[in-house]
């Protein structure tokens, strides 16, 4: 629940014309990140779409700890998304 509150407070960041960076887009991944369960197809799709935004999320003091958490890295790996070194 705390993660969702942080995500809601973060808002949006525009990185490119094609992608609107919004951590809310990753809400299908919340269960997998918080519980360590395998990610859903919807989660992986959203994670792929939000890939250009990951550095911004990592650098955000409120979101970085979630994006860099062991479960989030496991979700990203399961979805074939490399967590960038920013």
TrEMBL record:
<dbReference type="InterPro" id="IPR016140">
    <property type="entry name" value="Bifunc_inhib/LTP/seed_store"/>
</dbReference>
<dbReference type="InterPro" id="IPR033872">
    <property type="entry name" value="nsLTP2"/>
</dbReference>
<keyword id="KW-0732">Signal</keyword>
<dbReference type="GO" id="GO:0006869">
    <property type="term" value="P:lipid transport"/>
</dbReference>
<keyword id="KW-0446">Lipid-binding</keyword>
<feature type="domain" description="Bifunctional inhibitor/plant lipid transfer protein/seed storage helical">
    <location>
        <begin position="21"/>
        <end position="86"/>
    </location>
</feature>
<dbReference type="Pfam" id="PF00234">
    <property type="entry name" value="Tryp_alpha_amyl"/>
</dbReference>
<keyword id="KW-0813">Transport</keyword>
<dbReference type="GO" id="GO:0008289">
    <property type="term" value="F:lipid binding"/>
</dbReference>
<dbReference type="InterPro" id="IPR036312">
    <property type="entry name" value="Bifun_inhib/LTP/seed_sf"/>
</dbReference>
<feature type="signal peptide">
    <location>
        <begin position="1"/>
        <end position="18"/>
    </location>
</feature>
<protein>
    <recommendedName>
        <fullName>Bifunctional inhibitor/plant lipid transfer protein/seed storage helical domain-containing protein</fullName>
    </recommendedName>
</protein>
